[in-house]
Amino acid sequence: MGVRWGMLSTASIGREVAAAIKGSTAASFVAVAGRDAAKAARYAGSLGVPRSFGTYDDLLACDEVDAVYVPLPIALHTEWTVRALNAGKHVLCEKPFAMTAAEASACFDAADDNGRRCFEGLMWRHHPQTLLAQRLIADGAIGEVAFVRAALSVSVEPGDIRRTGRLGGGASLDLGCYCISAIRLFGGQPVSVSAARVTDTVPGADGADLRLAATFTLPGNALAQFDVALDYPRRDELEIVGTAGRITVPDPWLCRPGRLDLVRDGVTESVPARPGDPYRIEFETVSQAIETGAEPAFGRADAVAQAAAVEAVRTAAATASTVIL
To answer: Taken in order 286, 291, 295, 300, is the CA torsion positive or negative?
Structure first.
């Protein structure tokens, strides 16, 4: 059975994750909690999960749960990550882990205080497709990284949770975390950032960003740019430009093709990667780290630095200024 997971939420992402890890020997869902007991029971039943609870606290009190998956609205991530850790559970919290560096630090402080582990749910980073890009770059396939460009956009209707400001909605938080994580993974922690945004005006948006574009300076005189939007057609893009070539990733975040394109001297080579569901790989990777005590590839320092970069982007856009990290 491996690590026994409980889920705080009946969100749609939970269905996708539960389906992805079904049959895994490293991880399994054993409980679901929602704000409505009847709804939680129906949700758990539809997923084949044996237990359900009508409050999050009831799940946290369950001795049959080793770890908790937190796919709640972004504004609730830190609160329930800390509460789960204080209840003696390990935590995998969906992206973005926290809205500020201080919040991210508070989560890891709680983990340390309780002898537990916490992880940020940016699943694409664990996939063989991403590891292949890292290996090619480390081997010098494109020379020195000079520029990283990323984009992610979706089209969601007004009233969607992703456009509800009080719950942590907005393009920079919901989508920008992917792009920022890619820029950091391949280019290093940003040195400075400037950004511009279009404010969402639908009822409930509360001033959250509908669209945002940002430019980073990176270590070694490299640059990076990304853009995100909640009212564009779907776009998933990642390009890493080096001094001797470039890598483009056709589906960087969901990793469905399991391949990337290596371009050198005007010639494009399609390089395959081992396929696999990114959520299954993420849960198995995290579960193995919990069981073995091994240091994760992305721990406290990474999560705090990621949150600091997200925070800097939002500040730069809100103030129309350049922010030094």
So the answer is: positive
Q: CA 296 to CA 126: how far, in whole Å?
A: 11
171, 303, 11, 156: CA torsion to nearest 10: 10
- DSSP codes of every residue in 18-57: HHHHTT-SSEEEEEEE-SSHHHHHHHHHHHT-SEEESSHH
> Could you tell me the two tokens for 220?
């070694």
The residue segments making up the domain with residue 280 are 126-324
Eight-state DSSP code of residue 199: E
Give the containing element (helix H, strand E) for 8.
strand 3-8
Q: Do residues 149 and 275 share a domain?
A: yes
Task: Give, as one character, the DSSP assignment of residue 220.
Answer: G
pLDDT one-digit tens code per residue, 254-277: 999 889 999 999 999 999 999 999
Over residues 63-83, the pLDDT tens digits come to 999 999 999 999 999 999 999
Question: What are the tens digits of pLDDT across the range 20-53?
Answer: 999 999 999 999 999 999 999 999 999 999 999 9
202 in the same domain as 225: yes
